[in-house]
Queue: 3 jobs
Job 1
Amino acid sequence: MFSKTGRGVVLDSYDRVIKSGDPRSAKTFLMVQCRAWDNVSAELRTRCVSFMDVDRSDMYVRIRGYNLYVDPEYDMSEVPANFELDSSFILHADAFYYGYYALESLRYRGRHTTIHPSHGYLYVSPEIYSTDFRDAASFKLYEYDTSGKYRRCFGGVSGLNK
């Protein structure tokens, strides 16, 4: 997934998801079935997804303190109820721009994944009716492969004009 400017996302040393400084570098995630499948209405299930780190199959993109991190999957007997919701997102096609997608947090409905304008890290923010917000919350799928068990997504979310 990349923006019009070609920016992807990478991980910092704390496994926080941040905007890539290099348009050619991006972290690869696998788009998998929604971790909170049982907590989603039937109408949203086809659009609910989770993102697994391609290099570490027990690690998922997850909201922690409103920021996006890649965190380990917990032992299911000890899973905090929050992990399933924090690692699940509703995929919205043509949300702000035709041909682009937006990710809405399942835990914080009405909040979308966006890029912090100053720091470049990804976080969930309430929808703001501005061009800056729509640009920062929009992305395209760069490559989408449904031939295997997982749907493979390359890169990450990035602001259009950043």
Note: Confidence is low (pLDDT under 50) at residues 146-162.
Job 2
Amino acid sequence: MAKRKRLFSREIEHRLVNGIGVPVAWRLIRILKRTWKINWINVDVRSTKPAIFSIYHGDLVVAAWELPYVLPKVSVLTSRSRDGTVVAHFVHMFKGAVTIRGGSSRGAETALLQMRRALKAGRVVVIPIDGPRGPEGRVKIGVISVASKTGAPIIPGAVRTNSAWRFKSWDRMMLCKPFARVDMVYGEPFYVPPDQTREQLEEHRKRLEEVMREMHQGTD
């Protein structure tokens, strides 16, 4: 099969997406969000600070609209990839939100240091627990390690809906359709004790993964 001929270079395409595509999409989704019938579940834990909010990568677009409720002290972890840069531009549309760049393959140590500083300063850190490459729903051990080293609780989060579009990506990125019923679900604080062995961290990872899976029941 012949490769699609590019109209622009990758760099120009990337600049167009970030400079035009992201702001336009942000405004369109803001309008769409006004039609959603949102129900908050266990919302009181949202005020917990410092805390680590764990979400699925595929929930990012919808869950981002919760950011104004935890601003100004919120930092969102994004990868250093091109996709991560797009996510960072989207997050920065919310005034007061900042990003921490790094992931399992690049910038992990720097990201960990920034997360520890953010939590020490009383901020909320948002971590897509199955990013940046998946598989979908697979909790990475990094979030467990950060919780253990900082003492900050993990607040599991989930978006549930009865009507959504799914993008053809590894995370099946979700966008709720007009007039959809949307549950913004917050779980109970999940603490990881300090000085855990690798095996103990793995047990906590599995437990969080099960909690997140149960919280997402009821959506496609």
Note: The first strand starts at residue 37 and ends at 41.
Job 3
Amino acid sequence: MKLLLSKHRVCGFTFIDLLIVLVTVALALVVLATPRRSTCRHRTSCTSNLKKIGLAFMIWSHDHDDKSPRFVSTNQGGSLEYATSREVFRHLLSISNELVSPRVLVCPSDPGRKPGTEWDKFGNGNLSYFVGVDANETQPSTWLSGDRNITTNRRLMSGMLVLSSNSSVSWTTDIHKRAGNIGLADGSVQQMTDALLLGSIQQSSNLPTRLAIP
């Protein structure tokens, strides 16, 4: 008896085919997950930087009759004379002894700023964070510092930004992709979306508030 062989090959996965598919899927998952891990890591580093800034301001003020550098003359090591100046870095120079290194003043997600290596060459170009000129430890919820991509016109800003309860405040896409971090006067840090940022301003009892943006 002759066996009749079908001219049509039955299609199916071989072990090699299955292995290739699994490897391809695994690589795709790694690629998709990498930006997310990187974003989370940068956000964590930024939060850590702001906590260090808050602690440095607190240590400085405890050594100067509980007054922040923004309320103390440069003659006593403060930054009062620069309260409304565009030279925002002056406020951070006043706490340089407490910060040790200027590197913590740049957010890893901020491509527009370069980490400083020496305090005598430190400037706005080495600073990713705004300074809340009116922040006060006696009012723990006041904004002490935060990511510089805070705005009222959807674009990066610099100089003095004055916020009131009806300010249309938000984040730009330049640093944390329409999100950001705010360091409070009590040393804590809050991660905020546009909605949380706007809600915080609308509910604040410490208005108007001035932010010096580098």
Note: The chain has one domain: 39-213.
